[in-house]
Design goal:
The complex is a heterodimer of chains A (166) and B (404). With 166 residues, chain A is mostly helical. Chain A contains 6 helices and no strands. Chain A is globular, with a radius of gyration of 20 Å. Chain B has a two-stranded antiparallel sheet with strand order 1-2. The chains are: A mainly alpha (166), B mainly alpha (404). Chains A and B meet through helix 2 and helix 3 of A and helix 4 and helix 5 of B.
Chain lengths: 166, 404
């Protein structure tokens, strides 16, 4: 009972903040709403006993990536609402189309999954030990590929940011 | 969860909050008195015994101050920022154990204790960043930007330092890390617990963590976000009254919480420096007055050692503040990215060498890396500048004074 109430409360927060991210015209407030969205998702992960995933969500997305986003927004001084009201007319129908398509795909999958009922998972499914074991044995090769991709990204960003030799 | 469990949880939350908020005035008083002592001053000594009531008077003063909101500020975010800096500091303390019994275990002894702490400390950047932006003031904005860049940079070093504790204990749970440190030193020396700081990897990790901890809490010599000489007061320039007090409290509570984490991970948590547990259990099994005394010491000794270590670390904060000058911004970034992170990575690699192949290859590795670093730093020794005094640079002295 308590969990259901909590779930619906969090779902409501997550959806309303997600809508707010798009609807808000102030970029800093949008970014903050996105942070709230990430945190409510993290609490949802905790409720699904995926604690490791939840805490990583907070550390990586809310704690690092969004701080960088805010940093950039503040540095570029996009604080004024008029700055982002550009080219809205052209992009809007396209955005609706893509969003609706994505929504229908996700919804169809979710409804199919919901018809199976809630699956019973092992209680330690979300601990760091389980995830680490699976990640470094069964999925070691994809993990290495992701690491390679990240390394390429880091090197690329350093090359882009480097001062050109005079 | 039964009702009794809920009661215990609430009691533990009350204990932890009581500890943090109760020691806050003491800590602030201590900072001012100890700094005064370092600088050959007296410090606040008028109100109450040794000036202990001074923080209360300051709090009362702040409470009655007028609150001024800048006209161009983003009101909502501006008033949210102090709360956002206070909340992560309070929440980060939730996984710190400060005793073995039920009342003193952490509020939530979760399996991801250390990661939870890292998550909370990464959220701490928001309060400062948003305060800087919402004030709509150049100094505030610069302070906020500096703070966010600094916190992100030093979080990596802090994660690497904490990873040594995690790897050595084989668990992310705080109580497991303390339990690992209660074993005999290096597995051989009896009666002395194996604090992580006594091992080479733990020593490097603790040093790394101490530096990162100074930077995370924006303390000297890493206090660039509120550098008085260039940024007025940085992100808190526009704040007055209780909102300023909230930032102040948030800073000190963050210091207490992060000292608690360092105590738990590297300094043996609530364990005493010498293992008295055989004497303790002998006294507990005996009759009469010794049994009672053993009960009292068993209940009071762990929190005493924990608090003593936290205060010792806080003294370390003050010592550094009174000794070192503020870094330049490029020095700050260089230390974070080009010194702390490589050291942390090498330390972690050598710890894995210890875990896989034993302590001999690991110590050899430390020797090799140390020698390499020594050779490299010997080659890149900075030039010693000769100080030359010129007559023109001398202060003006009147003729009469020089005749005396």
């Amino acid at each position: 009972m308590f969990e259901k109430v909590l779930f619906f409360l969090l779902a409501l927060i997550a959806i309303s903040t997600a809508v707010g991210v798009v609807a808000n015209r102030n970029p800093v407030r949008s970014a903050l709403l996105l942070v709230m969205n990430f945190i409510s998702l993290a609490i949802l992960y905790f409720m699904l006993s995926a604690q490791f995933l939840g805490v990583l969500q907070v550390i990586v997305y809310a704690g690092a990536i969004m701080v960088l986003f805010l940093f950039v927004i503040m540095l570029l001084n996009l604080g004024s609402p008029e700055a982002i009201a550009q080219e809205r007319e052209l992009k809007r129908p396209l955005a609706w189309l893509v969003a609706m398509g994505l929504f229908s795909v996700l919804m169809s999958q979710a409804l199919v999954l919901a018809s199976y009922g809630t699956p019973q998972l092992a209680p330690d499914i979300g601990t760091a030990r389980t995830i680490g074991l699976v990640l470094f044995t069964q999925w070691a090769f994809p993990l290495l590929l992701v690491a390679l991709l990240l390394t390429v990204g880091v090197i690329g960003s350093i090359l882009l940011a480097r001062r050109r030799p005079a | 969860m039964t009702l009794a469990d809920l009661g215990w949880v609430l009691l533990r939350i009350a204990m932890m909050l009581g500890f943090l908020l109760g020691t806050l005035p003491v800590v602030i008083w201590l900072e001012r008195r100890v700094l005064a002592w370092f600088q050959n001053r007296i410090g606040p000594n008028r109100l109450g015994p040794f000036g202990l009531l001074q923080p209360m008077a300051d709090a009362a003063k702040l409470f009655f101050k007028e609150e001024i909101i800048p006209a161009q500020a983003d009101r909502l975010i501006w008033s949210l920022a102090p709360a956002l800096s206070l909340f992560p500091a309070l929440a980060a303390a939730a996984t710190i154990p400060w005793g073995p019994n039920r009342l003193l275990t952490p509020v939530a002894d979760v399996d991801i204790g250390i990661l939870y702490f890292l998550a909370m400390s990464s959220l701490a950047a928001y309060g400062v960043l948003l305060a800087g932006w919402a004030s709509n003031n150049k100094y505030s904005l610069l302070g906020g930007l500096r703070a966010s860049a600094q916190v992100i940079s030093y979080e990596l070093g802090m994660g690497l330092a904490l990873a040594t504790a995690i790897l050595y204990a084989g668990s992310l749970r705080m109580t497991d890390i303390v339990a690992m440190q209660s074993e005999p030193l290096w597995g051989v020396v009896p009666f002395i617990p194996n604090w992580l700081v006594f091992t080479p990897w733990g020593l490097v990790g603790a040093g790394l963590f101490f530096v990162c901890m100074l930077a995370e809490t924006n303390r000297a010599p890493f206090d660039l976000p509120e550098a008085e000489s260039e940024l007025v007061a940085g992100y808190q320039t526009e704040y007055s009254s209780m909102k300023f007090a909230a930032f102040f409290m948030g800073e000190y509570i963050a210091i207490l919480a992060i000292s608690g984490i360092m105590t738990t991970c590297f300094l043996g948590g609530y364990l005493s420096p010498v293992n008295f547990s055989p004497i303790q259990s002998f006294a507990e099994s005996s009759e009469g007055v010794w049994h009672v005394l053993a009960g009292v010491s068993g209940a009071l000794a762990p929190p005493f050692w924990f608090v003593a270590k936290v205060f010792a670390l806080f003294f370390g904060f003050l010592w550094v503040r009174a000794t070192l000058l503020r870094l330049r911004y490029d020095q700050l970034m260089n230390i974070g990215w080009r010194f702390l992170i490589p050291v942390g990575l090498v330390n972690l690699a050598l710890l894995t060498v210890y875990i896989v192949w034993g302590w001999v290859p690991s110590l050899v590795g430390y020797a090799v890396v140390g020698a390499m670093y020594w050779v490299r730093s010997a080659r890149h020794r900075p030039e010693v500048r000769q100080l030359t005094y010129t007559r023109a640079a001398q202060p003006y002295r009147p003729k009469e004074a020089s005749n005396v």
